[in-house]
Amino acid sequence: MSYIPEMFASLVFSEDVMKEKLPRETYKIMKKTLHEGKRMSLEVANVVANAMKDWAIEHGATHYTHWFQPMTGITAEKHDSFISPVDNGNVIMEFSGKELVRGEPDASSFPSGGLRATFEARGYTAWDPTSYAFIKEGTLCIPTAFCSYSGEALDEKTPLLRSIEALSKQAVRILKLFGNENVTKVTTTVGPEQEYFLISKEMYEARKDLIYTGRTLFGAKPPKGQELEDHYFGSLKPAVADFMRDLDETLWKLGVFSKTKHNEAAPAQHELAPVFTTGNIAVDHNQLTMEMMRKIAAKHDMALLLHEKPFAGVNGSGKHDNWSMTTNTGINLLEPGETPYENAQFLLFLCAVIKAVDEYQEMFRASVATAGNDHRLGALEAPPAVMSIFVGDELMEVLEAIEEDRPYNNKETVQMKIGVHVLPKFPKDNTDRNRTSPFAFTGNKFEFRMPGSSQSVATPNTVINTAVADVLSRFADRLEGVEDFESALHNLIKETITCHKRILFNGNGYDESWIVEAEKRGLANLRTTPEALSAMTMQKNIDLFARHKVFSEKEMYARYEIELENYCKTINIEALTMADMARHDIFPAVSAYGAELAANASAKSAFVPCNAEVELLRRMAELTDLFYEQIKTLEHAISGAEKINLGKTALAMYYKDKVVTAMTELRKTGDALEEITATDFWPYPSYGAMLFSIK
Ligand code: ADP
Ligand code: MG
Fold this sequence. Notes:
binds magnesium ion; alpha+beta; nine-stranded mixed β-sheet; Creatine Kinase, Chain A, domain 2; binds adenosine-5'-diphosphate; 4 domains; Ubiquitin-like (UB roll)
């Protein structure tokens, strides 16, 4: 497979390509822009744009687009060709610095939460040189940020970039205190593991719910689910292996470090994990990964489901966001060190994360709040809706020893003193990894397991970065200029552990008893999206983002509105789809089956008793009547939403309390009907057929 290194990133305008294609001076300036965030002049941008265009045309591109991430969760693009008319009706291929640096898509059809007044519907996209341009399907894609004309963020990338900067600034302050004079920048490293389901395209197309909502709204349990635990890490089916090979090749060409692929816990569920990279690029790459995996599955006659809960009663899909911080000198700040001093630095960064998660726990929860993710969080599967941190037994003992001024594990004769004692080596223990924790320390990084499989990880990362930046800034304020640094550090760490140990939990996060315990500890349990999103209106959170210039108060409220609106729209579409399926497909089917049972019974009854038919017919009739009533209840709930005029918060609550409840009831009856209806009559492929549809 020696061709992989050549193929890798062959469609990326990477630093290597820049070095080859740009004049030396331009390359130098470009590097400064990339690594130090220095602005470049329009003249330099012109040179870069021209080189980019020539390189793109060499690789078959005819168009370019500013590639951006509006708050729809998916990426947006508007393609322009490079052609420019000249005399005699001919064209030349052109691409200017101005076109590279700034674009003006018609912003009016993207969500803005009221930020973009209708009289000024324009927004602009601005080149993000820290994420490389690439060629996708014959188009040169330029990663960009998307803002309103007055500079407010209308996308996911702008706040992410701001939060990375905020974190860098504060982390560098702390590192100076430890004598790291040559650290000038800290970036985050992110590796998002992506879960998804694969089913046959034919079955997908036979289900309106999958087509319109991405998840099944009806579906009785299959005879075989995941109870045998025979899917996880099982060998790949040939069709799946083919798809994955194709996907890997596509992603590699785009410079995505797709690394690990395996089956997940549920039948038809799989995972793709990339090698981690810098936070900004990782987010872009994950967006690309989601787009390409869907498209390539379609080419292989499969449908790829990214929804958090496509099938009830079967594991949902998440996106584990592995996160750490690294210096420009290459040091992972969450890697326990070798010397007492390195250990102390590690412990301080660790404590900063612990404090950040505890203080801003509601905001962490809000960053993953979507209608789809409500089926995982708070439903006693996957991670719970309560934020907590797993640090493992070993590290927990260290933290407790520090807090209580006692020797660690009785192995040391004197008490743990930070900056004096060497920490024990924590083995990266794979066996007692706690898979139920929403936020787990896994040796040299944290793994945030709450994000949903379909969401962009930009927002969760923005929240982690900003919350940690905030704590670091307070730590730095306290430590800068003290006379006895070691004692001050020791006290700060000790105090942090005492104040925030309530967020540490190594037990089983799925357990009901934890929910009770968490409540005693005063931890928030925000089970649904409307409840969780209210965190965005909490003063401490508004202040947090304003302090670090990540979101202004106005931007925060705009985002709150957009998220609420997304929730309401999602539930509304689901409810309408469900009512449509119930009324137009399921009801006629069960009615027809009932009629056949009745006809059979009456034909047979002249000759033999037909107790079975009669019993079944009764049950069918009972359920069918109930089902019909519940359709009406749901339809009534849907139309009731129009009468709610107390604002978006009230509307979201209405959808949660009235519409979701009506949907749950209707589904129960629908599934009970499916269980007793003859296969030939049921209008949709069953769970069993879908989950085992790929050979
Ligand atoms: P798993 O959690 O499935 O057992 P690993 O712990 O090996 O797997 O890694 C999961 C993900 O974490 C991978 O995408 C990997 O690249 C990423 N990762 C590893 N180290 C870091 C780091 N320092 N920062 C961010 N992500 C990391
Ligand atoms: Mg993992």
